[in-house]
Amino acid sequence: MPKALVVGAGVAGPAVATLLTRSGWDAPVFEARSEPDPFAGLFLNVAVNGRRVLSTLGFAERLLSDAHPAPRMAMWSGRGKQLGTVPNGPAERPEDGGVVVRRSWLHQVVREGAEQAGVKITNGRRLTEIEHHDDGVTVRFEDGTEETGDIVIGADGVGSAVRRYVAPDVVPTFSGLLGSGGFARVPGLEPTPGFQHFVFGARSFFGYLVRDDGTVYWFANLTADAPPQDRSGLVGSGATSADWLERLRELHSDDPAPVPQILAATEGPITVYPIFKLPTVQPWSRDRAVLLGDAVHATSPSAGQGASMALEDAAVLAKELQANDFPKAFQQYEAARRPRAEALVAYATGIDKQKRVSKSRIAVAIRDLMLPIFLRKAAGDHSTDWIFDYEA
Ligand SMILES: Cc1cc2nc3c(=O)[nH]c(=O)nc-3n(C[C@H](O)[C@H](O)[C@H](O)COP(=O)(O)OP(=O)(O)OC[C@H]3O[C@@H](n4cnc5c(N)ncnc54)[C@H](O)[C@@H]3O)c2cc1C
User: Would the CB of 183 count as within 6 Å of ligand 1?
Assistant: First the structure.
């Protein structure tokens, strides 16, 4: 039985391991974390192209049992003027719109689904080294253990250790945006069925939705010159979660309701993390190692496609490994995926630019004047259908 060593139990890792197991591979997964993190990230959009892969895996129904359907996005200026609404999905097909789930719930559904399919997932195994042989590959972990297989699949996210072997010169760079956010309950705030709201605040970009049970999911993108020094935890630069929350309350104090109210009602720890850009990785494999998901094309959360793209990669890589030996399978996989991944990264980078807040009041005023025109155009056109209509 061929053996694939899968590194990383986020989204792509358990997904590709499940598909490979079903086609007769031994595909154990090794995850650095000692246990699943229930607060891993915030929430994310799962688009219809990603849901197609989840359906193939048989995981979609469970995921949707705890999801907020959000086929439309409403945009607001920092003065409370509605700039427009746009579809969060293919134009004129709200049934195929995006759904918002907690990131930890998506991880749990995919991980537990994989285990039910017979995939063995081992926590507390941080990959540090890869050694290639003519007839196989050995991976070594921080705890001193090692494993041998036929190939290694790097599904270990934006800070990928497998990528250091495949493309040692590729180093993520800071995008100029920090992601932050949390959860709250605001008495009297009505649910927002079918919608996410986005506010182009004067000093920071804010997004929120209210689930039917009243839970508010919110995030803010802060513009920053450099990432916090300490990347290990929720917050950096010596600032605590409470410090960041205070800063966000101040930055959004002039924004329209319910933004200040949501921040005032947030009690728990909040997440703050730098958003990184990844230079182009070329090629996506070396020897017996291949990359997928954020490890090879980290996509800014702005496009709402990071998880969906990781799932698409998993489906295509598994299909190619079923049909071909490596390295042909790796080459075919890359040929099928690279153009789409690069187009998507470019699309997300364009959205990031709009979110970065200019220090010039004139630039902000021009943006607020121009955005309604762009949004009206975007509301009915089919220019982003290529993202959603893809069949992995
Ligand atoms: C903190 C954070 C918050 C995010 N929040 C959002 C969001 O709000 N909205 C959104 O759209 N997208 C968000 N994203 C991006 C989104 O989660 C990813 O695009 C998507 O999960 C990609 O899936 P993946 O499987 O490629 O990587 P991931 O889901 O990141 O999984 C990678 C896994 O590899 C493990 N790992 C890392 N290094 C090693 C190693 N050396 N050895 C073994 N295991 C390793 C990690 O612990 C992790 O479990 C966030 C990402 C991060 C990191």
Answer: no
